C-alpha cells in the first residue's frame, strides 16, 4: 500500500462524505443486485482488487448467487442476467470506458437503460457508475490491498 487514505485527516473527512454519498444512492429505488453488478463490472475493468473484494463479499452476504458473480466479466455470453441487469452492465462498461469511444455512452445503451429503469433509477445508475469509478481510482492509485474487507464495513464509517 502506498498510502492509507483513511489514516490521513483529509482522507478520513472525505472518506466519510464519500461513504455518505454512496448511502444516498443505496437508498434509491434501484435493486441492490443491480448496484453490486455495476460495482463489480466497473471494478473489474479498472483493476481495483479492493473494490472487487468489497462488492463481491457484500453481494454474497446479501444472498447473490455465486454463479452470477463469477460470470460478471462475461455477462454478454451468460444467460443468468435479466434484460434490466444487462442494460445496467452495458451502462457500467460504457460509463467506465469513456476514453475508449468519442460517443461515451451509446444511444442504444441509454435506450435500454430507460426501457428498464425510471428517471430516478436512471439517475441512481449514473451516480453509482460515477461513485464506483471514483472509488476504483482512489484505491488503485493508493494500491489499497484486497482481502481484508468484511461485509458492511463501510456502513459503520458513515455512522461514526
Automatic annotation (TrEMBL):
Gene3D superfamilies: AhpD-like. The keyword Oxidoreductase applies. Residues 15-94 form the Carboxymuconolactone decarboxylase-like domain. InterPro entries: AhpD-like (IPR029032), AhpD_core (IPR004675), CMD-like (IPR003779). The keyword Hydrolase does not apply. One of its GO terms (molecular function) is peroxiredoxin activity. Keywords: Oxidoreductase, Peroxidase. This is AhpD family alkylhydroperoxidase.
Amino acid at each position: 500500500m502506498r498510502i492509507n487514505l483513511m489514516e490521513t485527516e483529509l482522507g478520513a473527512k472525505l472518506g466519510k462524505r464519500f461513504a455518505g454519498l454512496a448511502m444516498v444512492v443505496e437508498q434509491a429505488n434501484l435493486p441492490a443486485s443491480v448496484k453490486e453488478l455495476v460495482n463489480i463490472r466497473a471494478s473489474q475493468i479498472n483493476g481495483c482488487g479492493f473494490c472487487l473484494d468489497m462488492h463481491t463479499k457484500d453481494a454474497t452476504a446479501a444472498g447473490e448467487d455465486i454463479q452470477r458473480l463469477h460470470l460478471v466479466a462475461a455477462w454478454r455470453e451468460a444467460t443468468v442476467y435479466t434484460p434490466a441487469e444487462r442494460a445496467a452492465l452495458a451502462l457500467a462498461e460504457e460509463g467506465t470506458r469513456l476514453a475508449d469511444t468519442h460517443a461515451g455512452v451509446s444511444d442504444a445503451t441509454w435506450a435500454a437503460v430507460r426501457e428498464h429503469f425510471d428517471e430516478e433509477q436512471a439517475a441512481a445508475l449514473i451516480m453509482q457508475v460515477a461513485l464506483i469509478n471514483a472509488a476504483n481510482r482512489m484505491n488503485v492509485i493508493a494500491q489499497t490491498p484486497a482481502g481484508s474487507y468484511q461485509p458492511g464495513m463501510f456502513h459503520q464509517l458513515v455512522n461514526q
